[in-house]
């Protein structure tokens, strides 16, 4: 392995960590900064092209899933958490990241992710990424996010909207064949 490949791998790991850490803190500008200017983000069967569209998507997710500031009678773990005077939180954990460096300017990676909130595990899935060298930095040029399962009534279910029922049904029946094609494509099967 050559030095440039080690630098590429560590830069890509850093990019993945910055995406999650900034997103968890609500720093959408910094989160979107790990995408190339013309990047594509795919999530929930929808595609968002370019940083402005990706920013609008993530801002909408954040706005649409913010917990209420006060609840008359807490009915969810998040509402109960808030009623006790605590701030809600979200934490993304990414692991089992497999990076394939194709050249000095192109790479692919895939990772598993799990998201924790006040009630525990909220949702989990996989990232399928493509990276490119842009102005001397490794940035995401394409990300396909696949949610494998959600906690009913949780943050991920709210973000998934009407798709949450389908995701939950697949998870409960252990049907993950709906998106194995990305793994197969990446490995030439």
CATH architecture: Roll
Order of helices and strands: HHEEHHEEEEHHH
CATH topology group:
Nuclear Transport Factor 2, Chain: A
Give the low-confidence spans.
64-71
Given the structure, what is the number of helices?
7
Gross geometry: globular
Radius of gyration: 17 Å
CATH class: Alpha Beta
Fraction of helical residues: 25-40%
Distance linking N and C termini? 26 Å
Arithmetic mean of pLDDT = 81
% residues in beta strands? 35-45%
Main pleated-sheet profile: 6 strands, mixed
Total tally of structural domains: 1
Q: What structural class should be given to the helix and strand makeup?
A: alpha+beta
Going across the major beta sheet, what is the strand order? 2-1-6-5-4-3
Strand tally is: 6
Keywords:
6-stranded mixed β-sheet; 189 residues; alpha+beta; Nuclear Transport Factor 2, Chain: A
Describe this structure in words.
The protein is of the alpha+beta class and 189 residues long. The protein has helices spanning 3-24, 28-32, 51-64, 77-83, 155-160, 163-172, 181-186, and strands at residues 35-43, 46-49, 91-103, 106-117, 120-134, 137-150. It has one domain (3-186): Nuclear Transport Factor 2, Chain: A (Roll), CATH 3.10.450.50. Helix content is 37%, strand content 35%. The chain is globular.
Please give the structural blueprint.
Elements lengths: L2 H22 L3 H5 L2 E9 L2 E4 L1 H14 L12 H7 L7 E13 L2 E12 L2 E15 L2 E14 L4 H6 L2 H10 L8 H6 L3
Parallel strand pairs: 1-6
Antiparallel strand pairs: 1-2, 3-4, 4-5, 5-6
């Amino acid at each position: 392995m050559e030095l440039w490949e080690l630098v590429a791998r560590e830069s890509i790991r850093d990019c993945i960590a910055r995406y999650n850490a900034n997103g968890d803190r609500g720093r959408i500008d910094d989160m979107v900064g790990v995408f190339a200017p013309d990047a594509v983000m795919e999530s929930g069967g929808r595609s968002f092209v370019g940083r402005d569209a990706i920013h609008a998507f993530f801002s909408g997710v954040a706005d649409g899933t913010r917990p209420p500031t006060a609840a008359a009678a807490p009915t969810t773990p998040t509402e109960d958490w808030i009623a006790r005077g605590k701030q809600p939180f979200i934490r993304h954990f990414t692991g089992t990241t497999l990076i394939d460096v194709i050249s000095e300017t192109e790479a692919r990676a895939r990772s598993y992710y799990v998201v924790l909130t006040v009630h525990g595990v909220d949702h989990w899935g996989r990232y399928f990424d493509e990276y490119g060298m842009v102005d001397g930095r490794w940035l995401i040029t394409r990300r396909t996010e696949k949610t494998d399962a959600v906690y009913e009534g949780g943050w991920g279910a709210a973000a998934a909207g009407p798709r949450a029922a389908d995701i939950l049904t697949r998870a409960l029946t252990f049907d993950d064949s709906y998106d194995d094609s990305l793994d197969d494509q990446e490995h030439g099967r």
